[in-house]
């Protein structure tokens, strides 16, 4: 179970959930998540739980697979365990292009 919301939800997450699902604007620095993830990890540990899953919802720069891979790496460096690319697509072809870009991003090692 992953719970959204901000740091006010951390007590509930530590007690009832497996992790946190924050939103991160596409132009926001991944570093902004480091301190909240550390606080959540401390709460989880204090509750006798393992490290939290942190699945961030953000838009990746898919036009540049190197930049997308670098963003995923930067998110992982601050404690994010999963990245959910959120994006609105116009049609099936647009979705297919985005899926291909995500595959290329992952192939770069992200």
Your description of this structure?
This protein is of the alpha/beta class. It has 4 helices and 4 strands. It has helices at residues 10-16, 34-46, 65-77, 92-107; strands spanning 2-3, 19-20, 53-58, 82-85. A 4-stranded parallel sheet has the order 1-2-3-4. Helix 1 crosses helix 2 (34-46). The protein is elongated, with a radius of gyration of 15 Å. It starts with a strand and ends with a helix. The relative contact order is 0.17. The model has no long low-confidence stretch (mean pLDDT 92).
Strand-helix topology:
Layout: E1 2-3, H1 10-16, E2 19-20, H2 34-46, E3 53-58, H3 65-77, E4 82-85, H4 92-107
Parallel strand pairs: 1-2, 2-3, 3-4
Helix pairs in contact: 1-2, 3-4
Head-to-tail CA distance between termini: 24 Å
Give the % helix: 40-55%
Query: What count of helical segments does DSSP give?
Result: 4
- Estimated structural class: alpha/beta
The whole-angstrom Rg is 15 Å
Profile the largest sheet: 4 strands, parallel
Please provide the ordered H/E string of secondary-structure elements: EHEHEHEH
Enumerate the spans where pLDDT stays under 50 for 5 or more consecutive residues. Answer: none
Enumerate the strands of the largest sheet in spatial order, edge to edge or round the barrel: 1-2-3-4
Mean pLDDT: 92
Strand residue percentage: 5-15%
Molecular shape: elongated
**What's the number of extended β-strand segments?**
4
């Amino acid at each position: 179970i992953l719970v959204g919301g901000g740091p006010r939800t951390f007590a509930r997450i530590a007690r009832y959930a497996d992790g946190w699902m924050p939103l991160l604007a596409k132009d926001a620095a991944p570093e902004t998540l480091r301190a909240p993830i550390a606080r959540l990890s401390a709460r989880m540990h204090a509750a006798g739980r393992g490290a939290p899953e942190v699945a961030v919802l953000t838009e990746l720069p898919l036009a540049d697979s190197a930049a997308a891979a670098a963003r995923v790496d930067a998110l992982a460096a601050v404690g994010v365990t999963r990245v959910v690319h959120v994006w609105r697509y116009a049609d099936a072809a647009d979705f297919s292009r985005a899926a291909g870009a995500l595959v290329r991003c992952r192939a770069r090692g992200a």
